[in-house]
């Protein structure tokens, strides 16, 4: 009887607990001031408007959690995923330690995603606080996307915003304002 109970307890411990996703670059989002901070990667962003941002992949819905797991299998990390409170716009951040220039990273992503695009603005470069940021706007599957690529230290970071085209045109300046808030911060 004792052996049976011990076996059940071990089985519950092993199979009853879902696997958790380890974060390589733990981060946080402060709803009070709409600031996203990632100390290990040394950057922050200030969001404009009302956004809900989830930084812990273990608290994300199953689709986002599966995406986070697939990125980790490719040595990347889903830093955060979110939406405006009314759910009309989305955002996500991805990091990967490739140690390549932002333009090369953006070109690789653009090439991988060419199939299925209905429009492509091409890549352009802007400077945000002396940090080169590559921008890319495109349409796919009925959504318009604005992506921003930058490199800090050896880490390539990709921030993407998306919405339906009629909303996107009105909010593209807001996405640029958010990216313009990009700031490097201390690890400590």
Please characterize this protein's 3D structure:
This protein has 188 residues and is of the alpha+beta class. The chain has one domain: Protein Transport Mog1p, Chain A. 28% of the residues lie in helices and 40% in strands. A seven-stranded antiparallel β-sheet has the order 4-5-6-10-9-8-7, with helices on both faces. The chain has a four-stranded antiparallel β-sheet with strand order 1-2-3-11. A hairpin with a 4-residue loop joins β5 and β6 (89-96). The longest helix has 16 residues, at 165-180. It is globular, with a radius of gyration of 19 Å.
Topology readout:
Layout: H1 2-15, E1 28-30, E2 35-38, E3 43-46, E4 51-54, H2 62-73, E5 76-84, E6 89-96, H3 102-112, E7 117-128, E8 131-140, E9 143-152, E10 155-163, H4 165-180, E11 183-184
Antiparallel strand pairs: 1-2, 2-3, 3-11, 4-5, 5-6, 6-10, 7-8, 8-9, 9-10
Key descriptive features of the protein:
188 residues, alpha+beta, seven-stranded antiparallel sheet, four-stranded antiparallel sheet, 4 helices, globular, disordered N terminus
């Amino acid at each position: 009887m004792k052996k049976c109970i011990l076996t059940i307890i071990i089985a519950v411990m092993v199979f009853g607990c879902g696997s958790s996703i380890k974060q390589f670059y733990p981060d946080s989002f402060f709803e009070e001031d709409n600031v996203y901070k990632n100390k290990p990667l040394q950057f922050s962003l200030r969001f404009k408007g009302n956004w809900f941002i989830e930084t812990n992949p273990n608290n994300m819905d199953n689709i986002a959690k599966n995406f986070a797991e697939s990125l980790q299998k490719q040595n990347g990390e889903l830093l955060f995923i979110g939406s405006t409170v009314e759910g009309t716009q989305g955002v996500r951040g991805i990091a990967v330690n490739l140690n390549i220039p932002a333009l090369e990273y953006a070109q690789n992503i653009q090439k991988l995603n060419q199939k299925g695009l209905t429009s492509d603005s091409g890549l352009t470069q802007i400077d945000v606080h002396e940090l080169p940021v590559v921008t890319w706007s495109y349409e796919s599957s009925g959504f318009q996307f604005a992506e921003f690529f930058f490199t800090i230290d050896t880490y390539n970071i990709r921030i993407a915003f998306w919405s339906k085209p009629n909303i996107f045109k009105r909010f593209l300046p807001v996405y640029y304002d958010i990216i313009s808030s990009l700031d490097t911060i201390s690890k400590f």
